[in-house]
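Posting for a labmate who doesn't have an account.
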Amino acid sequence: MPIYDLICTNGHRFEVMQPFTAELPACQACGAAARKIPSMFGIPGKAGLPPAHDRLPQTWRGTYGGNRDYIRELRASAEARARIEERHPELAGDRRPILAHEGSYETSPLRLGDTSLPARDHRSSDSHSHHHAPLPSTQRSSQPKG
């Protein structure tokens, strides 16, 4: 016998196990008329969204030197993501242009309109173990060029 998820006109949700041909019962909490709603279910395997635009490689090196097969896969993935975002705009995320995406911006890209710098990630390969304090304004002008 199938299990149905139901919701009443007052918003109460409940489940019922009954034959397909049986009439839907009234709400168990308030007695109002109920209707079927989509049930949650699981499908074994792997399902997921294609990566967002800003998660795709942004440099020539990221495409394995312009590997045509890899670029074809990236393009198909980007097109699939665009189709999904057309139907579900809430998945589009931040669409502002990325100005910097390497070094300290690797984990949090600098985007057009950003006013603050991201926190430096010391685990990235280009960082080192100490911080450089900014020079006072009087010392900046006296520093030699070069």
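Reply:
Got it, the structure tokens are right above this. Strands lie at 3-8, 13-17, 34-37, 98-100, 110-111.
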